From TrEMBL:
This is Cilia- and flagella-associated protein 69 ARM repeats domain-containing protein. InterPro entries: ARM-like, ARM-type_fold, CFA69, CFA69_ARM_dom. One of its GO terms (biological process) is response to odorant. It comes from the Eukaryota. Residues 14-580 form the Cilia- and flagella-associated protein 69 ARM repeats domain. The lineage of its organism: Eukaryota, Metazoa, Chordata, Craniata, Vertebrata. GO terms for cellular component: non-motile cilium; sperm midpiece. Pfam families: CFA69_ARM_rpt. PANTHER family: CILIA- AND FLAGELLA-ASSOCIATED PROTEIN 69. It comes from Capra hircus (Goat).
């Protein structure tokens, strides 16, 4: 030792390395492990041997030799041996750690997976958990729990038989679920770092234990689901927590992650505690705009600093795990609680909150939502359609361009019950509403979907029933889109929309610029590619499904365009045959006489169809012009009648003013009136006829007096006058000579006398 002390550092290091090498070659570690069996009752010597083994276990070679000598099981079985100094437990646990790290981990676990070792670990952990108060005790307790967690990964370890599983479940849940077990009576965890790590380690070991189906009943008895659900709730303000805000947030995320692993094995417990409702309520809090500052410090909180995305992510993972069980009770309960609408709303909000900084977590949230919705709607046709309708009603333009065709084709198109339900819920109306927005990037997608929907015979009635702004019909909308498309493509049309070139009625400006080039048979020509590159073919297909007849709400201009659309296929076929003929000429090939005649007849037929369409368009335009002239004439006639009526009214008013301001004019008008009345009567009166005057005598007015007749044949005293049936008749106002005359009041005979009260 003195010699080594006097040497330089390098020589001392070499000497130390040499000694370690000699110890490895000589198998010193293996010999010392074997000697432990001889020192069971000699504590001091045993501690010195353990100290030496602790140093030797830093070498991988020594660890391998120790494992071959069954060091792991031998040391672990004596962990709980009496030792007032506490060195035995500390050094033994350190050796076990080194063996797990520096030798075959599987072999060490196999040695520790026996009843004797697990009973020793259980007793040590219980003692440290219940009686450990120092920082050192808590650290040692956590180390023992980590070793136990590693052992529990072995399915053959007798965790349940040793009673360790029951105790671990109790220790994991006693803080959240009240227990009468004496082990935890009066026990409480602090917010120290060691106790916080212990709580996370207990959550972690529950995830491992639940993989053994024989543990399920113990998890039910320990009310693990109830304990974990105490964390699935919004943080309550002004509530005193035993954990700090950052610690509670991390435990909350860890608990929800644990639920995702445990709940699928405990479906009845999950439903008993109304798990779906609690998760959906927590998701609603995650989606609202309440002020909340998350710390996002832990592994589970990654990407959730300053927001609630981490909580939302793990809640959605939990829902995804439950939905993927394909349990009818769970999925039906979610649908009844409005999960579909809520998830779609969250999806929309995540799109609006999208930013590059949180791209990863937002994409994960969106993916989980889509997976959950697909799971809920896989065997639920109304649910699928409700998702599509909800998206369409929200007008999510950013989403539609990517997901709409995928949704409709995967969920609805091709399945007649789904198509019928979609039509019943006015889905076609929503598609047409989007089409009416007249946004180019949507038109092609929506028209493609419309073409496939029109294969359903019920679709035509819905399309014809749709009305847009200013009572616009679907046919009018489609024809308007056709005209807009042709204008953008540079198709030649006159000011009325008629065909200009009957040989090339559909040619675009691009086709005019491009020269025809001979191409192989498997290469599409420009005329063929034109079909796929614009929406004209799709509009033709949709209107074709509507039969081009009895289309409501079309103007003359629409009918002129409709003539072209109706013959689109004929024009396109003629255009392709014309390309073939031109390619033959360019290749300097001469077809046989028969083929040449056929080609010429096809070209001529296509041109004749164009001329026929032009003729029909001209007739429509002329007919509309005549109709416009007739309508204009009717309007002029109506205007003339109105002016004439005004003139007559003005003349009548002038005559009236003249009669009221000039007495001579009034008398003259009166005489003319009386003369007209006399001339309208019969010349001879029937015998014994009673004459009734129709005017009031002595009245100087030319205005008709109204339907007044003075009856003189019946005396007024017999009938009591015209007001005999009213209370006013008591005043006896008879009519004499046609005019009402005042008379003195007459006391009625039938008026009862008042009796004397005396």
């Amino acid at each position: 030792i003195t010699k080594l002390h006097n040497c330089g550092p390098l020589k001392a290091l070499k000497s130390s390395s040499y000694k370690i090498k000699m110890a490895e070659v000589g198998g010193l570690a293996k010999t010392m492990i074997q000697s432990l069996e001889l020192l069971e009752n000699q504590l001091v010597e045993k501690l010195w041997v353990l100290k030496a083994l602790q140093h030797l276990s830093t070498s991988e070679v020594n660890c391998t030799l120790m494992v071959k000598a069954q060091a792991a099981s031998g040391i672990c079985a004596h962990l709980n041996d009496p030792d007032p100094s506490g060195q035995l437990l500390f050094r033994s646990s350190e050796i076990l750690w080194n063996l797990l790290e520096k030798s075959s981990k599987e072999e060490v676990i196999q040695q520790l997976s026996n009843l004797k070792c697990l009973l020793a670990l259980k007793e040590v952990f219980k003692n440290l958990f219940i009686r450990g108060v120092s920082h050192y005790d808590r650290q040692l307790r956590n180390d023992i729990l980590v070793i136990t967690t590693i052992i529990s990964q072995n399915p053959g370890a007798p965790m349940i038989e040793s009673g360790f599983t029951r105790d671990l479940i109790l220790f994991a849940t006693f803080n959240e679920v009240k227990s009468q077990n004496p082990l935890v009576k009066g026990l409480k965890l602090s917010n120290s770092y060691e106790d916080f790590e212990l709580k996370k380690l207990l959550f972690n070991i529950i995830v491992i234990l639940c993989k053994d189906l024989s543990t399920i009943q113990l998890l039910i008895d320990g009310k693990v689901i109830l304990a974990l659900f105490t964390y699935v709730k919004r943080p309550e303000k002004h509530k005193i927590l035993e954990w700090s805000a950052a610690q509670y947030e991390e435990l909350q995320l860890h608990a929800i992650a644990t639920l995702s692993s445990v709940a699928p094995f405990l479906i009845d417990e999950y439903m008993f505690y109304n798990g779906n409702a609690q998760v959906l309520e927590f998701l609603a809090w995650c989606d609202n705009e309440d002020s909340f500052f998350s710390h996002g410090n832990s592994f589970h909180g990654a990407g959730g600093r300053g927001n609630k995305f981490a909580q939302m992510r793990y809640s959605l993972r939990l829902l995804r795990a439950m939905v993927y069980l394909e349990n009818d009770t769970i999925n039906k309960d979610l649908c009844e609680k409005g999960a579909i609408q809520q998830l779609i709303g969250i999806f929309k909000n995540t799109i609006s909150k999208y930013n590059d900084k949180e791209e990863a977590i937002l994409l994960e949230i969106q993916s989980d939502i889509l997976l959950i919705l697909s799971g809920l709607c896989e065997h639920h046709t109304p649910g699928k359609v409700c998702i599509i309708l909800h998206i369409l009603q929200k007008d999510m333009k950013a989403l539609l361009s990517y997901y709409l065709p995928f949704y409709l084709r995967c969920c609805i198109l091709g399945c007649y019950p789904s198509e019928d339900y979609f039509l019943e819920k006015e889905g076609i109306f929503l598609l047409l509403d989007l089409l009416a927005l007249n946004q180019k990037k949507f038109c092609n997608l929506i028209l493609g979907i419309m073409v496939e929907f029109c294969d359903n015979p019920k679709t035509a009635a819905h399309v014809n029933a749709w009305r847009g702004k200013k009572d616009q019909t679907a046919a009018s909308l489609l024809i308007k889109l056709w005209r807009k498309e042709e204008k953008e493509l540079g198709v030649k049309r006159d000011k009325y929309g008629k065909i200009v070139d009957t040989k090339k009625p559909l040619f675009t400006s691009f086709q005019e610029e491009q020269k025809i080039i001979p191409l192989p048979a498997n290469c599409p020509t420009i005329a063929v590619m034109d079909v796929a590159e614009n929406i004209r073919a799709k509009i033709y297909a949709v209107l074709g499904k509507l039969d081009f007849e009895n289309l409501p709400g079309l103007s003359a201009e629409d009918f002129v365009t409709l003539c072209i659309i109706h013959r689109y296929l004929d024009f396109k076929i003629g255009e392709i045959w014309n390309e073939i003929y031109e390619e033959i000429k360019l290749e300097k090939l001469r077809p046989v006489t028969t083929d040449k005649k056929i080609l010429e007849s096809i070209t001529a037929a296509s041109e004749n169809i164009g001329k026929m369409v032009v003729s029909l368009q001209s007739e429509m335009i002329e007919s509309q012009a005549r109709q416009d002239v007739q309508n204009e004439q009717k309007v002029y006639t109506k205007i003339q009648a109105t002016h004439k009526q005004r003139e007559l009214a003005n003349k009548s008013w002038g005559n009236f003013l003249a009669r009221t301001s000039n007495a001579k004019t009034l008398k003259k008008a009166k005489r003319l009136q009386e003369k007209a009345i006399e001339s309208s009567r019969y010349g001879e009166r029937p015998p014994n006829a009673i004459f009734h005057r129709t005017d009031i005598k002595g009245l100087n007015a030319t205005v008709p007096s109204g339907g007044v007749v003075t009856v003189e044949s019946t005396p007024a005293r017999l009938v009591g006058g015209p007001l005999a049936d009213t209370d006013i008749a008591l005043k006896k106002l008879p009519i004499r000579g046609g005019a009402l005359q005042k008379v003195k009041a007459v006391k009625t005979v039938d008026e009862p006398k008042k009796s004397d009260p005396t």
